[in-house]
Amino acid sequence: MPETGSGFSQRLDSLSAGLAEQGRRVTELFEHACDAVFAMDVGRARAVVDADDVIDRVDVELEQAAVGLLTDVANDGAKLEPANLRRVLTIVKINNELERAADAATEIAAKSPALSEIGQSLPDTFRVLTNSVAGILRDVTRAFERSDARLAKIVLDSEDTVEAFKSQLLRDAERAIAGGTMGVDLAFIIHELANQCERIADHATNIAEQIIYSATGAIVRHTDAGWIELPKRA
């Protein structure tokens, strides 16, 4: 059985570079979505929705390129090393997670018109949450680009921080409602925004799991006791 050659490596490297760029694109989209809701700027929100079209297009292109690569290997009857197969499968899975994270970011931006109507600023604690999620997106993109399992594990540990920030944000909103300083409509939007932020963080941790699998062969799963690594597979 023939070995995969330099053409395969070049195509795989190109796929990886394209996915890393997609990760940066999604991070930027999320940051722009947050800017839109903080500024209650409907125009910025529309720009986020428009930018998501590019992410959707690249999502399709990357998946088609990955499928095409595996198809060519199969047609050539070439031997594909387990590490390379893991890398291709990881690219496909991460690509899907990024597209779904981008969808959540557009949902955040979509709250801008409603916030504009209410006319009350979001609390500073929400900025803490969004900064945390943006940092996780940047870290997981770097972890993929460098095939850095250590940094991917840091991303996994960051999930608890996001959950804690979300819980604090919602508690603060409840107290503000009780104290008469926040209306129910705003509190409802804050809850929706926090849910989308948590969803994006979940996608990032799913990506981190895939990075660890690709880099080490270990399968990572979340339990009540925390993150655990299952026995490595070939």
List keywords for this structure.
234 residues, mainly alpha, Methane Monooxygenase Hydroxylase, Chain G, domain 1, two-stranded antiparallel ribbon, 7 helices, elongated
Overview of this protein structure:
The chain is mainly alpha-helical and 234 residues long. It has a single domain (6-230), classed as Phosphate transport system protein phou homolog 2, domain 2 (Methane Monooxygenase Hydroxylase, Chain G, domain 1, Up-down Bundle), CATH 1.20.58.220. Helix content is 81%, strand content 4%. It has a two-stranded antiparallel sheet with strand order 1-2. A hairpin with a 2-residue loop joins strand 1 (219-223) and strand 2 (226-230). The radius of gyration is 20 Å and the shape is elongated. The model has no long low-confidence stretch (mean pLDDT 90).
